[in-house]
Amino acid sequence: MNYIKILGMFVLAFLMIIVAQALGAIFDEMIPFLGIGIIISALIYCIVIYFFVRLMIEKGLKQRRVDYRIVSPHFDIRAVILGIILPLSVILFYLIFVPGEFKISHFKTQDTLFRSLFWDIFQVAVAGAIVEELVFRGLLMGYIEKKTNIVVAILTTSIFFGAIHVLNGALNVGSFLQLLVGGSLAGVMFGLTAYVFRSIWASATLHFFWNISQVFYITEKQVDDKVFQYILDSHNFALTGGEFGFEASIISILGYVSVIVVLVMLRRRLRQ
């Protein structure tokens, strides 16, 4: 019976995200000027998800948000340090060891320039981090932990996290598998962060820094909607991340694993 309830919670969480995104997108369409609509859209996205999650925990499950690691917003310096080191290490590895060309895109209008920057900053980095941590490491991980244990909770939500990102565009088998592995390991990393620091805001901090690093976009072919780009000479999907991008690359995966190791060591130290 527990497994049916857990599956139902996954479906509900997925629907929550779709509805919240749709509501936010309305404002993006209504106010296209200088990317202001994107900022409002991101804000609406966060607010709607927050109240969805709060309603589910407090009214639906009759429990406290703090029991789901949804505490008052705060920053943990250790999460900040990890958040800076991870993307910086990955980017520097590419710049030093993987040949490529740095380019700055030129946009025809200020509107398109601001939309590009604001999308990466507010929609991907800020809203993406807050929403996904509230849902995956807050509601889902907390719920499954209570039904099973923390190991099952972290692993199942991480696989779901990776699977959700497959919807962003991995088409061939190689890209699909690479994204599923990379996305799942990233999910384990974020889940452990929330668990070790007992707060989704720690994992949201790490998540934010990882997402904001995409303002500096690493790709195998130039795209039109990114300002700062590093175009790789290599087309090896292990380095490029395949169709999804460098977040699923072996370099990023090694970064996730490194942070996971640090978190496990930190957890052991805190228990002593």
UniProtKB/TrEMBL annotation:
It holds the Pfam family Rce1-like. Residues 116-212 form the CAAX prenyl protease 2/Lysostaphin resistance protein A-like domain. Coiled coil: none annotated. Keywords: Hydrolase, Membrane, Metalloprotease, Protease, Transmembrane, Transmembrane helix. One of its GO terms (biological process) is proteolysis. GO terms for molecular function: endopeptidase activity; metallopeptidase activity. The chain crosses the membrane at residues 7-27, 33-57, 77-97, 148-167, 173-192, 244-266. This is CAAX amino terminal protease family protein. It comes from Staphylococcus lugdunensis.
